[in-house]
Amino acid sequence: QVQLVESGGGLVQAGVSLRLSCTTSGPSFSSYVMGWFRQAPGKEREFVAGIRWAGDITHYADSVKGRFTISGDNAKNTVYLQMNNLKPEDTAIYYCTTRIRWGSRPTEDPEAYDYWGQGTQVTVSS
Fold it and tell me: How far is Cα of residue 124 from the mean position of the Cα atoms in its chain?
């Protein structure tokens, strides 16, 4: 069983930055994928960003392009989500997830992922 542990959430004002971290107990083979999703109250879970452990492929939701950056540290089995210029509409629970299958690419489909973390709350006040 793979465990994912997120950290770094909090309550911040609009315009500031936060960095989320997610450490996985699973393997960090180059073609496996890590991703971030978020879920706001009353809304469905939505894709935010994904990265292949090799670092060669990243994918972002249009709503965060240019503001969020996903990166990974294979040595630490940790993936990061740097969130800049946060907006109130970024308020949500952020979930880390992983797809542990060879030849994977980041995808926006939550059904494609194998394991999920418990989530970390991000609240952005205006």
Answer: 17
pLDDT of 120 reads 98
Residues of the chain scoring pLDDT < 70? none
10-13 and 120-125 strand pairing = parallel
From the centroid of its chain, how far is CA 34?
7
Q: Which two tokens stand for residue 121?
A: 């709350």
- Quick one: which of 33, 63, 69, 68 has its CA closest to 51? 33
What are 102's two structure tokens? 């060879």
Beta strands in 14-119 (DSSP E): 18-24, 33-39, 46-52, 58-60, 68-73, 78-83, 92-99, 115-116
Q: Quote the pLDDT of residue 31.
A: 80
Task: Please check whether residue 88 is in contact with residue 14, taking contact to mean a CB–CB distance below 8 angstroms.
Answer: yes
CA angle 95, 31, 107 (to 5 degrees): 45
Longest dimension (CA), the chain: 42
